[in-house]
Specification:
This protein is an alpha/beta fold. The protein has a single domain, classed as Rossmann fold. Helices cover 27% and strands 25% of the residues. The chain contains 8 helices and 11 strands. The strands form 2 sheets. Strands 3, 4, 5, 6, 7, 8, 9, 10 and 11 form a 9-stranded mixed β-sheet that branches. The chain has a two-stranded antiparallel ribbon with strand order 1-2. Strand 1 and strand 2 form a beta hairpin. Helix 1 packs across helix 2 and helix 6 crosses helix 7. The longest helix is centred in the N-terminal third of the chain and has 13 residues.
Length: 256
Amino acid sequence: MPEAAADLWLGGRLRLTQPPRGAHRAGTDAVLLAALLPPEPGAVVCDVGASSGAVGLAVALRSPRCRVVLVDRDPELAAYARRNAEANGLSSRTTVIEADVLAPGLRRHADGLTPGLADLLLTNPPYFEPGRHRPSPVAAKAGAHTFSDGGLADWMRCCVDLLRPQGRLGLIHRADHLPACLDALRGRFGALAIRPVHAKPDQPAIRILVSGVKGSRAPLRLLPPVILHTDGGQFTAHAAALNEGRGWVDASGESA
């Protein structure tokens, strides 16, 4: 792994070493996903597609009674995740699994992705399927943004397998991919809650935050949006708090 200065996350509470600039690096999407669903005490939280561990480690830091499992198929990224867990004193509550989410079930299970592993699963899947856009010339960034094979439905098949019955799912995706997300979740999750994310109040949504419960039959809800910036370009009070590791995406949630 190339040596790099650690980024300071959550108001400096989390030190995160990431791949060099130019590769995929955790940013606002990871902040939002990590703050989406507060885990129950003692819960096992699985971060699928964890990269250097930003989402799962942020949850572990904010929720000291949970355990986290970080999943990535890239050995170099898994090494970053292990380094970050150790650097932040979270190794005792963190497991890093190198496994391909899109591999056949028997292979996934043998690699440690066992059924019913998690109470809460958080994921930021690749945004594009092969042939649907022009991938980045940077291999690491292309791998984070584009499925090498399979697609979102295959990714979600692994996620539902990893969750225990009635386990909770949280994901972030591009706003224009909402129909594909609903298709991939149909028949697998209920109690779906969709929250759009807007860069500014008068602009279209750029992301969606989706949560659901495995096996639930409860109806879908469309929730109020998250607004990231004021018209002047500053973080809104809510977005600033999330970046500092305070509160949750649901502004009525209990602060961490």
